Amino acid sequence: MFGHSKQAYYKRRKQSDSTNNQERIIELVLSIRKKMPKIGTRKLYFLLKDDFEKEKLHIGRDRLFKILRSNYLLIPRRHSYFKTTNSRHWMRKYPNIIKEKELECSEKVWVADITYLKTKERKYYLHLITDAYSKKIVGHELSDNLQTSSTLKALKQAIKNRVYKHPLIHHSDRGLQYCSKEYTEMLKNNDILISMTENSDPYENAVAERVNGILKYEFGLIDTFEDFKNLSQQLDQSIYYYNNLRPHFSLNYNIPSQVHMKNNVKLKTYKKQNQNRKIPTLI
Asked: Taking the model in full, what pTM does it have?
């Protein structure tokens, strides 16, 4: 064939096909990353598996890792900590009543937490309430303060959107917002039991902490935004994608909004070292 052996011809053709396939795989990855910028490779593979099969792209998870690594598309882990909890106060602190609780359906346990986000002007505070079973964010409020009135707005939103009427527990750290008279009265008036962390063990509010991390590191909310409007728009979009598009390992790669309504998933758990209690896996 024009001075080249048949073997050389098919080798070049195979290399060309491989390059084209790799380019298409990267296109598909970037289509997901537009909505979820820092989503990890395992979840990418789960989301794209059907597309790979339809387009006859023969790729396993290990090869996807290699392609992303060679194209500098693996997501590095970042760690940041900023304390928003003030537990040194005189108000009543409640015991942890969810330690041994098995989560079997939505709206049995809500977990609450506060984290900070940044603009060029200042810090803002994101007050979150998440369903511990479905991992769905059911209430949130973005404010420029740590006042109880802001935390209450997230709670009111969660209560308004409540689907089920069975007994419910609200679990949080011992921050003064959650211990305040206004907040605890709102919970009691809606027949919601109160549970709080007892030690500095992060596992006591692991789901809430993990949701904070996902929003920041997978959806880019760790970045510094131009202004409040820009931050607020990105936050609303991120929470929508988180609830409706992002698969969760602990939900067997199901989506929070679907699990919240169907209650048909057995959560994955693991045993903490040197202890017998079961703890939900990372999500």
From this structure: 0.74
